[in-house]
């Protein structure tokens, strides 16, 4: 559970069995009307935000934040790894799908 008043996440949520984490955020839900950038490193989130503020595209901001994150957190990720990106377009209103050749086995 998440104790909203103290912003404390229980061990059940984290699944660690021994650690608890405090959410350091001014907003639990983080509702944004235009955009949001979130990566492991706060400075890299700022890089992505700045790109958007300078009229960069979503992909410009994504790549800038990801490259920054690879430099700042080289111990856990870096250039040359894989990447999964979900892109939503209100104009297209589509859902993700498995490839046509996919099956359950």
TrEMBL record:
Cross-referenced InterPro entries: GGT_peptidase (IPR000101), Ntn_hydrolases_N (IPR029055)
SUPFAM superfamilies: N-terminal nucleophile aminohydrolases (Ntn hydrolases)
Stated name of the protein: Uncharacterized protein
Amino acids binding L-glutamate: 95
GO BP field: glutathione catabolic process
Organism name: Rotaria sordida
Domain of life: Eukaryota
Pfam families noted in UniProt: G_glu_transpept (PF01019)
GO molecular function: glutathione hydrolase activity
GO cellular component: plasma membrane
